[in-house]
Design goal:
- This protein has helices at residues 2-23, 214-235, 244-250, and strands spanning 26-29, 37-46, 55-59, 62-64, 68-69, 73-80, 87-93, 99-105, 111-113, 117-121, 126-132, 140-147, 150-154, 162-166, 170-175, 185-193, 196-207.
- The chain is α+β, with helices and mostly antiparallel strands.
- The chain has 2 domains: 26-105, Immunoglobulins (Immunoglobulin-like, Sandwich), CATH 2.60.40.10; 110-207, Immunoglobulin-like, CATH 2.60.40.
- Pfam families: I-set (PF07679), ig (PF00047).
- One of its GO terms (molecular function) is cell-cell adhesion mediator activity.
């Protein structure tokens, strides 16, 4: 009897699941996009359990305008597929509950440095940063230093001075105890995703510890030169030169 109840319960659950699946709407979408101009993505809904009252598009949290729409069909045109327009596009149909599908627009990583040129002082620490805002996100980051125009990989913990921290949109290379001889030069950050790879360069310039004193030393040198000139002038004045104050005093 107990076994029969268990079988009946399982059967009821399976029927309920099948009914829920059959009652759900089906949405067919255009294929994912990887390149092109004036590309049209679209969605078509069918087998809805409730009437479709309308539809719209969203990219992330931003609502977009539909280019062509009927109750069961909608499309959106992407002027140019690049890092700015890449992402997940959602077509949403106003049913109960809402019905949604996603069209993916994918490109290779578009990498940009936070600063193209970074300046640091000898002995200090510095952070080199690169970002990637294209879709899909970066799955791997790699740093290189250009040595004689050949990229040499920089691993995390190299010389116990180079430390790398990365996520899917950003990578940081922290260099401690900057070396005036070894560290200046070009560094390259490289990002990889399923569509390919992209990279950017950061030029690191390292100043000597004395660099900050040079303006002060220049001022001191100018003052010393001026004092020396005045001193020499006073020493070489002719004996018969009498200050104006003394002349008026004699009268």
């Amino acid at each position: 009897m107990a076994a029969t109840l268990v079988l009946l319960t399982l059967g009821s659950l399976l029927c309920a699941l099948r009914g829920a699946s059959a009652a759900g709407a089906k949405i067919s979408t255009s294929p994912e996009v990887t390149s092109g101009s004036n590309v049209i993505i679209s969605c078509n809904i069918s087998e809805t359990s409730t009437p479709v009252k309308g539809n719209y598009w969203m990219k992330g949290e931003t609502r977009l305008e539909s280019n062509e729409t009927t109750l069961d069909f909608t499309s959106y045109m992407i002027p140019k597929v690049d890092y700015e327009t890449s992402g997940e596009y959602h077509c949403i149909f106003d049913t109960i509950p809402l019905s949604k599908a996603t069209v993916y627009v994918k490109v290779a990583p578009h990498v940009v440095p936070y600063k193209k040129v970074e300046h640091g002082n000898e002995g200090d620490s510095i952070m080199l940063t690169c970002k990637c805002n294209s879709y899909p996100p970066a799955t791997q980051w790699t740093w290189y230093k250009m040595v004689d125009q050949v990229p040499q990989r920089v691993a995390n913990g190299t010389e116990e001075r180079f430390y790398i921290r990365s996520n899917d949109t950003r990578t940081d290379l922290r260099i401690v105890s900057l070396d005036l001889e070894k560290d200046p030069g070009k560094y390259m950050c490289n990002a990889t995703n399923e569509m390919g790879e992209g990279s950017a360069e950061v030029n690191l310039m390292v100043r000597s510890r004395l660099a900050a004193l040079w303006p002060f030393l220049g001022i001191v040198a100018e003052v010393l030169v001026l004092v020396t000139i005045i001193f020499i002038y006073e020493k070489r004045r002719k004996p018969n030169e009498v200050p104006e104050d003394n002349r008026w005093g004699d009268r």
